[in-house]
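Per reviewer request, we include the raw input and output of the structure prediction for the construct analysed in the revised manuscript.
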Amino acid sequence: MKLKQLESFLGDLQQFSNPKVELEQYPTGPHIASRMLFTAENSFGDVSNKVVADFGCGCGTLGVAAALLGAEHVIGLDIDPQSLEIASLNAEDLELDMNFVHCDVKNLGWRGQIVDTVVMNPPFGTRKKGADMDFLAVALKVASQAVYSLHKSSTRDHVRKAALRNFNASSAEVLCELRYDVQQLYKFHKKKEVDIAVDLWRFVPQKDKLGGIIADESLR
C-alpha cells in the first residue's frame, strides 16, 4: 500500500466525540500516523506478518494502519471503553480483524516478549507527569522487535536516557521530528490549533532470555 493511500484510509476514521482531558485524549492525525507505520514497515520490516500492539489505542488509528500494512495480528489496548467502541467500529468498517482489550497499560498482566512490535502515541505527561515513560517502560518489556512511539521533542534527552538506562533498551533512535497538530478540543485551549514538535522514536528492546510467555488469556 502506498503512503498516500494509507493516509487517505486513516483520514476517514471516526475520532473522539467527547475526548477526556484527564486521559490526554488527542487524536493521532492521519499524516503522522501514516508516516509512522509506513516507516516502521518499509524501513525496518516491523509490521507485515508481525504481531503488533497499539498501546493507548484511542480510536485505533495506529492499529488500523498496522492492519492495513499487513500485520498478522493487531491488539489495541486502552483504558477508555468508549474509545475502544469507536476503534472497533473503525476496524469493522474496513473489514479488519483486530482485537481490543480494555485495560490500564501501566498494569498490564503480560509476561515476557509476547508481541513483535508496539506502536503508540502515549499521553505526553502534561496532566500526569511521567505518563509517557510509564507506557514506554511496559512496551519495552513486552515487545521483542521494536517499539515506535511519539514524544515531545523538548524531552528528547530525558527519553533517551530513560530508555537506555532504566528500561533496558538496546538502542533508542529518533527517526524524524514531526509537527503534531493539536486542535482546540478543550475549554482551556486558547488557540484554534497549535503545532507541537514531536519525535518519532524507534526503540529496540533487549532480547528476553526466557522467551515470550503468554500470561494474558486475551492472547491465547
